[in-house]
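User: tokens in, sequence out, please.
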């Protein structure tokens, strides 16, 4: 199989959202902390009738329908998620309802979990399958689905929710440059979910930021090294047209790209002009640790990076800023933003992706765009996703209502024997929603 990669995408996020400006005021945070400090505009959340299973049912069915894919044509289905609803039964098995109805039960794959990285693990599994001797000629399907909710406190505004589906196969408009890939994995307690009675993580915010940036540096250095060995020339920011980052909140994305600029400057790469190198020279001798602590370096490198950020990163930021951290779906929502914004200009371009999951696991990998043929063309993908339409039709709620929902969900998490309001009034036709969890914890969904 040639040019294996992403043939098609679709995205779903809940229609309910809260404005970060309103949340800021409600929480008594200083004005601008969430909007400028974190760089976030708005945050989506699941109402009591939505969860990671309903969102993934919705997005899978939508993708199959809109691209005209016969459910029998799916041979592997992989889900990435860190939202635990059941410690044994995979989300993938819930999705099998769609395929069983069409007589297809011959589908490999289960769920992958490690914080926000599970979607990338699922994606690699599917791509590897299509490239392997066990491939049977059918499509792979990857689903990233998460609801990111935090306990009251500074992490709460960095929540979000969404599901993304990616169709995988050969002759793709978005193909993997599999040789340009590097990982960094280690044992750290930066963000984890040890309390199985709660949906909320235990999080060391500052540590998670540093771990993210250290993993980024390590992946970038390894990737540069591998590229140089293969191609016999230096790799720099100039060799990729766009950079897509896992996006817990936009400020970290700004800092991440600035970090790559700092790396390039230390490596004396051609991507940084003389003026930029001069500004960054005073920081070249900092140790790794010092460089993560230096506020001056952060400021100067973001300044030097600004024009490059505007060209190579800004087009990827729309959905993460509007929807929030979608955990496993976050990186792919940033990628979807790029296709939404730039689909007609992407052919021939290269994008570098950075996936990070706390704990920690991280990979940087490279994708290459071609126009592709209908229905798997970049223009049609943008059309099907209808990002602008979905953002516009959302329903803003006040912070009090958002918090009331979280309180109710704290009770419902892990509970049995309840029926939901079954209120689907905010949902678009075709959306799945939760109706009941019975006395044996079995979950039931309906479709609007
Ligand atoms: N106007 C403008 N900016 C402001 C204002 C204001 N009024 N007030 C604060 N800020 C800035 C701060 O200077 C800071 O920016 P800086 O880092 O560039 O200096 C930013 O807003 C955030 O303020 P902090 O005081 O650093 O925020 P706090 O520590 O309260 O919380 C954090 C931020 C740690 C990110 C928290 O939201 C969190 O723990 N989130 C979850 C963890 C997370 O997402 N980690 C990322 C990687 S792991 C993952 O993906 C889950």
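Assistant: Sequence out:
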């Amino acid at each position: 199989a040639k040019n294996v990669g992403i043939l098609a995408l679709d995205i779903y996020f809940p229609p309910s959202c809260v404005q970060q400006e309103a949340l800021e005021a409600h929480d008594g945070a200083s004005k601008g902390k969430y909007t400028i400090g974190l760089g976030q505009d708005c945050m989506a959340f699941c109402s009591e009738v939505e969860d990671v299973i309903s969102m993934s049912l919705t997005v899978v069915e939508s993708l199959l329908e809109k691209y005209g894919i016969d459910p029998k044509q799916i041979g592997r289905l992989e889900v990435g998620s860190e939202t635990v609803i059941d410690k044994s039964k995979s989300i993938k098995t819930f999705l099998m309802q769609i395929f069983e109805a069409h007589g297809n039960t011959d589908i490999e794959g289960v769920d992958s979990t490690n914080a926000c990285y599970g979607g990338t693990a699922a994606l690699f599994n599917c791509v590897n399958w299509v490239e392997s001797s066990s491939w049977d000629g059918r499509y792979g399907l990857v689903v990233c689905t998460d609801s990111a909710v935090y306990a009251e406190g500074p992490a709460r505004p960095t929540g979000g929710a969404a599901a993304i589906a990616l169709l995988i196969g050969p002759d793709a408009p978005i193909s993997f440059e599999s040789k340009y890939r590097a990982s960094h994995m280690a044992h750290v307690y930066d963000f984890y979910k040890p309390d199985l009675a709660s949906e909320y993580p235990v999080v060391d915010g500052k540590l998670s930021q540093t771990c993210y940036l250290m993993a980024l540096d390590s992946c970038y250095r390894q990737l540069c090294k591998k590229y140089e060995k293969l191609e016999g020339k230096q790799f720099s920011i100039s060799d990729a047209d766009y950079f897509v980052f896992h996006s817990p909140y936009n400020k970290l994305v700004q800092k991440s790209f600035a970090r790559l600029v700092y790396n390039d400057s230390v490596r004396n790469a051609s991507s940084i002009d003389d003026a930029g190198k001069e500004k960054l020279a005073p920081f070249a001798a900092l140790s790794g640790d010092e460089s993560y602590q230096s506020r001056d370096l952060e400021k100067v490198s973001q300044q030097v990076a600004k024009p490059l950020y505007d060209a190579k990163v800004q087009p990827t930021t729309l959905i993460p800023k509007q929807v929030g951290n979608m955990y496993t779906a976050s990186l792919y929502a940033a990628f979807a933003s790029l296709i939404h914004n730039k689909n007609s200009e992407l052919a021939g371009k290269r994008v570098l992706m950075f996936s990070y999951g706390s704990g920690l696991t991280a990979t940087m990998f490279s994708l290459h765009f071609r126009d592709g043929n209908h229905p798997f063309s970049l223009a049609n993908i943008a059309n099907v996703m209808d990002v602008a339409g979905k953002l516009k039709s959302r329903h803003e709620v006040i912070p009090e209502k958002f918090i009331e929902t979280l309180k109710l969900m704290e009770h419902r998490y892990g509970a049995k024997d309840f029926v939901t309001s079954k209120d689907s009034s905010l949902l678009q036709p075709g959306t799945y929603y939760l109706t009941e969890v019975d006395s044996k914890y079995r979950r039931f969904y309906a479709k609007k």
